[in-house]
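The protein record passed on below.

***
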Amino acid sequence: MYRRFLTIAASGLLVLGVAFCPARANAQDAPPEGPPPGGQMGPGPRMSPADELKRLDKHLKLTDDQKKQIKPILEDRQKKMEGLFSDDSQSREEARSKMRAIHEESDSKIRALLTEDQQKKFDEMKKHRHGPPPGGGPEGGPGGEMGPPPGAN
């Protein structure tokens, strides 16, 4: 009789343990509350100024002089964005508005350094920054990264 009681009790504990394990595993897998590490607000990783410059060079065929002038603009943009992401005092909409303003400012500075043909390509790249170009494809997908203009390959 005692043995049977221990078997039933052990079985009951086993069932309870199995019942609570998935809930605990899900709690560990759930994203943390609050802002993501590093204060990033947008989806996906951000490009470093060096990577952004490489991407622009690949699609716009920048001269060495243009690269030297564009690099500090991209570094300044990154610094401003990091400051924006670390500021928890503003609403999401305020942050989004400031983010747009920072991008517009840096984009206009970069555009002013480009030739007419490069400006056209740059404008096309900006159009596809937040979504795939017509016809689909990976360009401009998650992470807000600008893809190459259509026909740039």
In short: Residues 23-44, 133-153 have pLDDT under 50 and may be disordered. Residues 2-29 form the longest helix (28 residues). The CA atoms of residues 12 and 128 lie 58 Å apart. The chain is about 65% helix and 0% strand.
